[in-house]
């Protein structure tokens, strides 16, 4: 039976001694001993990207690149790792090999692609735009990759949000003209920014000053006033809103274009080790089922591993969260990927990408079985609903009426951990106390951003904006 060994074994104490602490031996012998020790320490690192260690074909190192804080990839990263599912499946292969899993955590998809093309990462997870760059770079550099499964998706585009500072006077995309906007160029959030500005009649290259920044840097720039707005992927917009450091300006679901995250694998690795890739995909399916069956516990696990507030994780990954998790590669997502190519080409980040050649669902079909895969392929996201998470509860309370949810919050203010409401028109979930509320007669309606609320007001005479505190009072 194969077994898993630790990626980087702890260095024994004698090898950590400084030269001064070594026994008094001739200098030449001491130098030889130190060289041998250094060589011994380097040997475990020489095998990565699925290669056998020191020529030993019975040992296979599997290197997985993931983004712990990009929480719509957790079923192929943070959650999967915490459950130990991948290692368990490798242990059960029974092929006489020893498997060593190395997990590498990154902030964005770009460095994962760089490591994959260098054959230092075998399996990686990232968003849709980075996946296309992954496909293009892999082909260009002679290390082709394949999209083998999907993690989290939103059919309208709600995984990306443009936010501004809490006290900002900006209320629409038109207000961004001449402003500094932070994003990560080549990311899905950058794609949302480009498309949103174009629909608003703005030139993404000329009408704004785009700051190409990592998410954390962009968040700091927004906080310090160095950026007027921030366009980012999960979980940054929700995190900043939860912390009171940002408010939503644009809900990505207004584009009504699918966004998703997926798993990519090096073609040569998949060809040499198909059973390993299938083991990973089986583990991903188990992590997906665990998240669906235990959404609160899953949010807590991811929070513990990442340092993100569990309330923010649940906003995206909860029972009615912004993301739906399913490893099946749905045709609608593939079609959206093809539409994304033009955005990357216009930004000169890629040339043409053969999406059909990049997508390969053979491994996930085999891993899950034809019947189970067909069932997942036909599944749909749950209907939007509000949720209230009470302190100490292992499950949330679900509400189909915003007014009913507000009554629950008003009656249990001291015991509410978080309350979530779906945007009235897009269905994007948002924190109830950060939403834009509209009173329309006896109805209380939440919206993620001012633009969607304003669109409702324009078509419903007599409706008006109300503060959250007033919405609570009216509901109770």
Automatic annotation (TrEMBL):
Keyword Signal: yes
Organism domain of life: Bacteria
Pfam families reported in the protein's UniProt record: NMT1
Protein name: Nitrate ABC transporter, periplasmic protein
Spans traversing the lipid bilayer: none
Signal peptide region: 1-49
Coiled coil: none
Keyword Calcium annotated: no
Keywords: Signal
Organism whose genome encodes this protein: Streptomyces fumanus
Domain SsuA/THI5-like: 155-298
């Amino acid at each position: 039976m194969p077994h898993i060994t630790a990626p980087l074994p702890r260095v024994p104490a004698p090898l950590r001694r400084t030269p001064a602490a070594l026994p008094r031996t001739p200098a030449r012998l001491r130098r030889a001993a130190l060289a041998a020790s250094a060589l011994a320490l380097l040997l475990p690192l020489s095998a990565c990207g699925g290669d056998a260690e020191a020529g030993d074909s019975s040992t296979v190192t599997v290197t997985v690149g993931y983004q712990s804080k990009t929480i719509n990839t957790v079923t192929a990263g943070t959650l999967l790792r915490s459950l130990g599912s991948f290692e368990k499946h490798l242990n059960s292969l029974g092929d006489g090999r020893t498997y060593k899993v190395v997990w590498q955590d990154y902030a964005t998809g770009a460095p994962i692609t760089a490591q994959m093309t260098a054959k230092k990462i075998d399996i990686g997870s990232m968003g849709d735009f980075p996946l296309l760059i992954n496909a293009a770079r892999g082909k260009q550099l002679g290390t082709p990759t394949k999209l083998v499964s999907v993690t989290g998706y939103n059919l309208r585009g709600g995984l990306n949000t443009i936010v501004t500072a809490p006290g900002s006077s900006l209320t629409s995309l038109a207000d961004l003209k001449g402003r500094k906007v932070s994003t990560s160029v080549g990311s899905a959030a950058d794609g949302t920014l480009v498309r949103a500005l174009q629909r608003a009649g703005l030139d993404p290259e000329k009408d704004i000053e785009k700051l190409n920044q990592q998410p954390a840097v962009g968040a700091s720039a927004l906080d310090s006033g160095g950026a007027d707005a921030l366009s980012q992927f999960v979980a940054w917009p929700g995190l900043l809103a939860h912390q009171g450091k940002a408010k939503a300006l644009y809900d990505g679901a207004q584009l009504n274009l699918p966004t998703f995250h997926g798993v990519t694998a090096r073609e040569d690795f998949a060809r040499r080790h198909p059973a390993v890739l299938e083991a990973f995909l089986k583990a991903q399916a188990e992590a997906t089922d665990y998240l669906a069956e235990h959404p609160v516990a899953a949010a807590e696990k991811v929070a513990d591993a990442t340092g993100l507030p569990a309330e923010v994780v649940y906003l995206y990954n909860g029972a009615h969260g912004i993301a739906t998790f399913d490893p099946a590669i749905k045709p609608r997502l593939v079609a959206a990927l093809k539409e994304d190519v033009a955005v990357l080409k216009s930004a000169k980040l890629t040339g043409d990408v053969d999406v059909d050649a990049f997508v390969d669902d053979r491994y996930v079909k085999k891993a899950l079985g034809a019947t189970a895969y067909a069932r997942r392929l036909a599944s749909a996201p749950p209907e939007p609903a509000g949720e209230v998470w009470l302190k100490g509860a292992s499950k949330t309370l679900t509400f189909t009426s915003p007014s009913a949810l507000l009554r629950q919050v008003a009656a249990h203010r001291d015991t509410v951990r978080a309350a979530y409401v779906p945007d009235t028109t897009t269905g994007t979930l948002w924190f109830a106390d950060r939403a834009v509320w509209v009173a329309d007669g006896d109805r209380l309606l939440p919206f993620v951003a001012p633009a969607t609320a304003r669109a409702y007001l324009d078509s419903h005479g007599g409706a008006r904006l109300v503060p959250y505190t007033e919405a609570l009072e009216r509901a109770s």
